Each structure stands twice: as C-alpha cells, then as structure tokens.
Amino acid sequence: AAASVAAAMEAEGPGERWAPVGAVSAAAAEEEEEEEEEEEEEEEAGESVRLLRAERRRLQAALLALGSHFAQVQFRLRQVARAAPGEQRRLLRELEEFAFRGCAGPAPSEREKQEQIEVRKEKQRELILQLKTQLDDLETFAYQEGSYDSLPQSVVMERQRMIINELINKLDMDLSEDVAMLSPEELRQRVDAAIAQIVNPARVKEQLVEQLKTQIRDLEMFISFIQDEVGGSGKAEDGHCERAGKKDVSGSYRPNSQPSGNRVSPEDTRKMRETGLQLMRRVLAVLQIFAVSQFGCAAGQVPRSLWQKDQASRDYTPLIRKLELAVERVRQLAVRHQWEEHAPGSPELQDVPSGGRDELTLAVRKELTIALRDLMAHGLCASSQGMSLVLAPIACLIPAFTSTPQAMHPWELFVKYYNAKNGQAFVESPAHKLSQSFALPVTGGAAVTPKQSLLTAIHTVLAEHNPFKRSADSELKALVCLALNEQRLVSWVNLICKSGALVQSHYQPWSYMANTGFEGALNLLSRLSNLKFHLPVDLAVRQLKNIKDAF
C-alpha cells in the first residue's frame, strides 16, 4: 500500500503539488482586499472627476463673466473717447462706478437655490431650539433661586399637556387630525359633542327614572284606593250576613250555619275587580272632561274660588312703601361706605367685618331682604302636594282639596325654579365643572346669562346651608347678598316674575305679582344695580363651619 501511494505521488510530478489550506484562505483574503481597494480608488476617481468637471464649469462661467465685463469696459472707454468734452466727465464717473462694481457671478441654478434655502431654514431651526433651551434653563434657574414666583413655562406646558391627554382619553375624543389644522370653533364643537355623549344619556335616564317613579307612585295610590273600596264593600256584606243569622235564646244574633248556595268563586271575584277598574277609569275620564269644561280646573291648578277672600290682605301699598324705605336706606349706607373708602387721607376700611355686624350688612339682611320677602309672599300659596295623576281630574270636587291653601315662603319659589330648570344637572355637568376648575370659557367666550348665574347661586346657597338645617329666611338672605355682590338682584327676581308656570300655580289672582308683574318693585331694586357690594354670603353658617372645621 505504501509503495502504491509513493508511485502515485511520483507520477503526479513536483509541479502538481497542492498548497496548504491556510495559505489558500490568506491568498483569497488578499485578493478581496485588493478588489475593495480598487473599487474605492475607482469611486474616489469618479468623485474627483465630478468635482473637476464642476470646477471647470465654474471657471468657464467666471471667464465668460470676466470677458463680458472687460468688453463693456472697452465699450465705455470708446464712448468716452468719442464724446464731447462736456459729456466726458459724466461718462468717466459712470465708467469708474462700473469698473469698481466687480464682475457679476454666474446665476445659481434652481437646485442650488433650494439647497441654500434648506441650509438657511436648518440654521434658523437650530437657533430657535438653542434659544428655547437657554430660556428654559434661565427660568428654571430663576425659579430655583426664588426670584421667579411662577413655575417655568416648560413645566406648566407639560402639566397642561398631561391634563389635556387625560381629558381626551376620558372623553374618548377623536383627534387623529392635526390639532393645528382645526379652528377654535371646530375644537369647541368636538369638545361639546364628546361631553354630550356622556351627559345626555345620564340626563335621559334620570328623566325616565323620575317619570317611572311618578307613574309607580300614582299606580300605588290607585291600587290602595281600589283595595279600600273593595274592603269596605266586603265588610258591609259580612255585616249583612251576620244580621241575617238566627237569634238564639239570649236574644243575640248568630250567623246562619247552613251553607250558602250563591257563594262567589275567586275567579268571579277577579273578573268583578277587573270590570270595576275599567268602569272607574271611564268614570275618571268623564269627570276630568266635566271638571275642565264646567269649573275650569285641572291638574296642578288651584281653583280661583279657593283663594282667600279677606280684602284687607289684598292691599300691598304698605309693602311697597316698606321696600322703598329699605332700598333707600341700603343705598345711602352703600354710598357712604364707598365715599369713606375712597376719601383722601382716610384709612382703608374693611368692607365687611368678620362678625358681619356693620350697618350695611344688617340693613340688607334684616330690612331689604325682609321687605322683599313680604312683597313676594303677597298672595303666594303652595299647591297641593298630595294630589296625584289619579285624583287630579276630580280635584275640584273632592273636599280634601278645597280647603284654604297653605302659605309658601318666597325662597321655596326660587327652589322650585331651580328644580324646574334642572339646576343640579347644569351645575354638576362636566362642562360647568371644567369651567370652574380650569377657568375655561365653555360658552364660546360669551357672557354668563342671568339664568345660568341664578342656578349657580341657588346651588351654592343650598350646598352651604342645607347641611346645617338653616331656615328659609337665612337662605333667602344669603341669596340676596350674593345677588347684590354680583349686581344681578333685578335680573334674578325678574326671572322668577317671568316664569309663567310658577306665577299661575302659586300666586292668587289679586296678588301683587299677578296684577303688576312686580314691575314697581323691580324699578325700586334697580336703584342698587350700580352700587358695588361685598357682603358675606355664609354669615348664617360661618360659625357652624368653623366649629365643624375645628373638630
């Protein structure tokens, strides 16, 4: 075997021997490196050629501009030589200006212009970013040193951005488009639509729940009424059966022991009840038509014959005089306080002392409010609370509802207006809460209407006084003080006067409100519209709140 291998190697010859494996890989690597170097040299050569060609074009353009400039100089020199002596001075001056002006360079191409514009924009962006960074660093340094009170603008914008992102996520708003492309009106419409998607279903559910509660309450009253009627008839039949019994030896009656042949089955009793219900529904409908056509009364109205007939109580002249005196006294005290505050050399006076015992506050709470309360209470009456939809059609014919109407406090009239206008839903709406929390104008920049301000004021008074069980007088005094502070007393009272449903349901026909529309009183109250007040609103609950806070 060894001899055969040696013979084969001798047959191949010395020139046919293979190279080692490592030597082959090294040679291949060297060849690849040489190829890469050649490619790089070719690329560099191509780049050099391109640069040389561009430089050649620029030189050619410069040479052409220089030749043109030289030709124009020669032409102007020839003009100077051939001109008259008077024109030579002017032509020489023009030639001097032209010669020192220099050669006009070649016009840049569109691509070069665009590149120059992009370079200029990039430099401007870098400069703006650098200035913003320096400004943020300066504000942060000043805030840390204590010489700058508010937070740095970058921190404020970051927090605002976080709040806006949370609101967008909560309201499920679609802001896929660029916000900068939308107008303020379009943004406001999108926000209103997003809020309406949350508020409107809840409001509709509340109204539906209230309607269902009312219907269920009326149905319960009707069922109890029917049960009372059926129970009374059953008792009467039992008594009749007892009387029909036989008399024993002692003279007392005893029921008949023999079974009755005409006993009513439960099925017949159910049918009789259903028939009775149908008959009663028809009777109620007929009575309602009869009452409306003959007596002119319906649900929610008090018959005109039920009002008080005392002629002495109908005279409202003393009440008008009382209100006029109270308005005049409050006006004089307010003018005197303002004059003392703005008098030169006088010390600065506090508008309302902590105890609220100054003359102006006492005059408003104990004179003006009481006079306004008495005048608004003239002919004011509370409608029946026990009347439901079942008994409303025959309310004029039922003795229980024909008694003298009970008196009603004017503050309850404001509360009824608040409930009728869905004041709680308005105050607790997300838009209103956002407006109070972030001072954002949700009304499109328009002024707050008297209706909105009145609903907010009533809600404020109720929220502050109801937890402490304050009286209606205290709440009315707080509302009057708040109205004077906001200079809206006339507009708020006017809203109550213009509410037709409240006036027709709660005021007697001979009352001052029904006869005059409260015009004279509004004219008297308008004397206070131009005066500025700073009256305490929580005077009746301030001490109680302090006690609560202490514990």
TrEMBL record:
Biased composition (Low complexity): 1-11
Domain RUN, residue spans: 359-540
UniProt keyword annotation of Phosphoprotein present: yes
InterPro entries in UniProt: Run_dom, Run_dom_sf, RUNDC1_M
Biased composition (Polar residues): 253-263
Function: May play a role as p53/TP53 inhibitor and thus may have oncogenic activity.
Protein name per its UniProtKB record: RUN domain-containing protein 1
Species this protein is from: Piaya cayana (Common squirrel cuckoo)
